[in-house]
Every structure is written in structure tokens, then in C-alpha cells.
Amino acid sequence: MVPFVVQLAGEYVLEILESIQHGLSDLPSKRFAQRPAYGDFIARNPGFFARTERRVVSYWSCYCWWKFPAFGHYPGCRLLELLRAAAIDRTGRPWPRHTPAGLTAETGP
After folding, report:
1. What pLDDT digit, counting tens, does each position of 39-95 carry?
2. Do 75 and 24 meet the contact criterion of CB atoms below 8 Å apart?
3. Is 2 exposed, middle or buried (0-12, 13-18, 19+ CB in 10 A)?
4. Which of 47, 54, 55, 43 is nearest to 83 (CA)?
5. Which is more confident, 103 or 73?
6. CB atoms < 10 A from the CB of 83, how many?
7. What values do phi and psi take at 67, rounded to 5?
8. Is the pLDDT of residue 18 over 60?
9. What is the pTM of this model?
10. CA distances from 32 to 44, 64, 68, 91 (A)
11. Which residues pair with 104 in a beta bridge?
């Protein structure tokens, strides 16, 4: 299930991102039973997660920048942060970020 959820995180449909974020609302908790599974998957598939991150930025810049002028407020960005935190927790080290810092509609991707 985990690979499919992570793949869907890279889709452009806002409702999908919001549903995933809602379904993973307990992911920040270290008591969340699936947290290690998400962390393991990302740690074992860094290229896949990096591609997912780039897709999230791309879809935001094409379809959602007008609704979320700051990338950090976009549900896809928030979802990436949840997943990244699980990878950091699992590996015990900082996880590479493939999304530009401070990205806004004015600065562009």
C-alpha cells in the first residue's frame, strides 16, 4: 500500500492530496503504526521520492499557484514534509530536499 500512497502524493488532483494528508494525519506521531513503513520505503527508494517531490512542485506551479501562492501552504508540500519526517525518523539523518526553499508564485519554480 505504501508505494501507491507515495505515488499518489505526486498527482495533481488537489482532492487526492487532501485525502492522503487526512488519512496520514497521525503520521507525525512516532506511535503511528505505519510511520516506519513510510520511512523505510522512502529510505530504500530515494530516487522515487525525489521524482515525487519534483512532480509536486511542477503540478503546484502549473495548477495551484494561484490558490496557494506560497508553496509551503500547498497540501502537496505539507504531505511531502510528513513523508520526509518519517524518512528522517527511520534513518536518523537529514533527508535531502528536492523542493526549492522559499518557493512562491512570484519567484517561480
Report:
1. 999 999 999 999 999 999 999 999 998 999 988 899 999 899 999 999 999 999 988
2. no
3. middle
4. 43
5. 73
6. 24
7. -85, -30
8. yes
9. 0.86
10. 20, 30, 29, 17
11. 70
Three-class DSSP labels, the chain:
CHHHHHHHCCCCCHHHHHHHHHHCCCCCCCCCCCHHHHHHHHHHCHHHHHHHHHHHHHHHHHHHCCCCCEHHHCHHHHHHHHHHHHHHHHHCCCCCCCCCCCCECCCCC
Are 10 and 55 contacting, i.e. CB atoms less than 8 angstroms apart? yes
The CA distances from residue 106 to 12, 30, 58, in Å, are: 20, 36, 15
What's the CA gap between 29 and 56, in Å, rounded? 24
Report the candidate in 40, 49, 47, 55 with the shortest Cα–Cα distance to residue 90.
40
**Residues 86, 95: contact at Cβ < 8 Å?**
no
